[in-house]
Amino acid sequence: MDKTQMLERLEQRLSEIQSQYKEPRYIVNKEWIGQICTLIGIPKECIELCVQILSLKPPTRLIWLHMAECTGCSESFLRLDKPGVESLLLEYISLEYHETIMGAVGFGAKKSLHDTLDEDFILVIEGGVSLDENAYFMTSGADSITGEMESKEVASKAKAIFAVGTCSSFGGVQAALPNPTSSVGIDTFLSQKVVNIPGCPPSEANIIGSLIYFILFDELPELDNFNRPLWSYGKNLHDMCERKAKFESGDFVESFDDPHLQDGYCLYKVGCKGPYVANNCPKVKFNAKTSWPVRAGHGCIACSEPNFWDSFGRIEEPLNNVNAYITTRKTLSHLPHIHNIDDETDSNTLILEWQSNAPTKIYIQTTDSAIPQNLLDCSFQAHFPTLLAHLSGKNKLGARLVENYSK
Asked: How many angstroms separate the CA atoms of 357 and 167, rounded?
């Protein structure tokens, strides 16, 4: 949504709430709401509307289910500091069911869950789920229900579903090869739309921001092709990294005892996968914005990407290292030299010529003309010493890059 659409939607939402609730319940922390709005892409012109909506609207009911996971995502959620998580749970969200922090146990806890199913609520699922004949691997609760059954039952009545963490989004570590429990992300088997908030764990800002967006708009945020919110996963992590300048100049840490680690040198050679990752970790950080892994001295492990455990190799080795991959490397087959049209073709044909010893060509061959309509004819040649001299004289970054290359 653009600014105008957001303004219209929030005005409509406020009107709906004002028809039911006349008096504000409490004074909203306007500074915090402003920070959240900035984070999730709501323009400052809409902040006052957001404040009015949250001051009038009763807390949104939330059910948080635990599946196959380590509870790290809950730990991240509980580290919210502004406002404190207790303020969030008393003023904006009513946490009806969360096995880690709720007081009830056994059948009493399950009663709290099933009583909430008759109301409007948001569902958060943390952890992967085992399916079919392996569903018993994820069995929990006083009634010994499988995760697959419980997820389907609760999801069928939820207004919105959020998969918090990489385990619930894509299967996570337990879905890594050989995946003996057949663990999967929850959108694999749920028919409803699921918002994935991956990370191991995701930051508390990404969790809270996604929930507040739905509470304000009563609709899901814009998503990427992996169903991740664009406001938090729409940009490349490497582009926001504080060590990027060192990457550009070719200044790399060679080992974890390298003295240049403290000088902000890039961690790519010791396994950082940042250039391949979509996430906002450098912006929101963790633990009340104190730090994040790359700032602390360890490379990004691409934990918010699908199948990261198998697809991104060993944690502390770069991707271009042939020994970094766990799975068997695929053998590339030879590309066909030229795809030509045959005599039976009766329409225009797009042809690609892709050879190792000739320029790449893309052109249209027509049946009524022997002359192809050339669309692209590209080749690249460079005199390397001239290129280096050009880079060296361009700016300090280029000069440093050439110096490192010469070494």
From this structure: 46
